[in-house]
Design brief:
The chain is mainly beta. The protein is built from one helix and twelve strands, in the order αββββββββββββ. It has a single domain, classed as Porin, CATH 2.40.160. The strands form two sheets. Strands 1, 2, 3, 4, 5, 6, 8, 9 and 12 form a nine-stranded antiparallel sheet that branches. The chain has a three-stranded antiparallel sheet with strand order 7-10-11, with no helix packed on it. The mean pLDDT is 81.
């Protein structure tokens, strides 16, 4: 957990030393929809669920229309009955084609802090991978100089689950190694800039 914090602190110091006038700090948070998507048909039949995220950001304009953004972001992901609480460090390249509109793309390496399931079906435990990396794409609309509205799609690049243990025939526990499942999300965040 200390490594992501030191990395973010390094990003902050690097951005800050390059020109204080062009560095923006902020807070963000909001709701979204999260799911675990099967790459092969028939692998997973559960549905997605309401998710949320909250965190802080730092942004550095490199040119008039191009900038870099780093975030420290708590999020929950998963699907119905399966929850993963994660701490991520999204790293984004931002491009502003219009004064009030910005496009973003990047990666979100995250560490899964805790995974739980609700045991409402025959599933007894689901073990998430400890680390995940997601590909991100989104837009940002600037409501004012201090407020922005961010929409973002995330697609996991690594396998989401390590294994699933469920009750099989004769009430015996069966452990299945999982592959071909990816975290996916769409998030909406309100951002406040200092």
């Amino acid at each position: 957990m200390a490594k992501p914090l030191f990395f973010l602190l390094g990003c902050l110091l690097t951005f800050s030393s390059a020109g204080v006038a062009q560095v923006v700090f902020g807070l963000k948070g909001g709701p979204g929809y999260a799911d675990v998507v099967a790459l092969e048909k028939g692998k997973d039949s559960k549905t997605g669920r309401l998710a949320y995220q909250a965190g802080m950001l730092v942004k550095k304009q490199l040119q008039e229309r191009v900038g870099l953004q780093a975030e420290l972001l708590y999020s929950n992901k998963g699907q119905e009955g399966y929850f993963v609480h994660a701490l991520g460090i999204p790293l984004l390249v931002c491009y502003r084609p219009l004064e009030l509109l910005e496009l973003e793309a990047g990666l979100n390496p995250s560490y899964n802090l805790l995974s739980t399931d609700d045991n409402s079906s025959n599933i007894r435990s689901m073990q998430a991978q400890a680390v995940d990396i997601a590909l991100l794409a989104g837009t940002r609309y600037f409501i004012s100089n201090r407020l922005g509205l961010n929409t973002r799609l995330g697609w996991g690049l690594l396998n989401a689950l390590e294994s699933v243990q469920y009750v099989g025939e004769n009430n015996s526990l069966v452990r299945v190694e999982k592959s071909g499942l990816r975290h996916a999300s769409i998030m909406l965040s309100l951002e406040y800039y200092f």
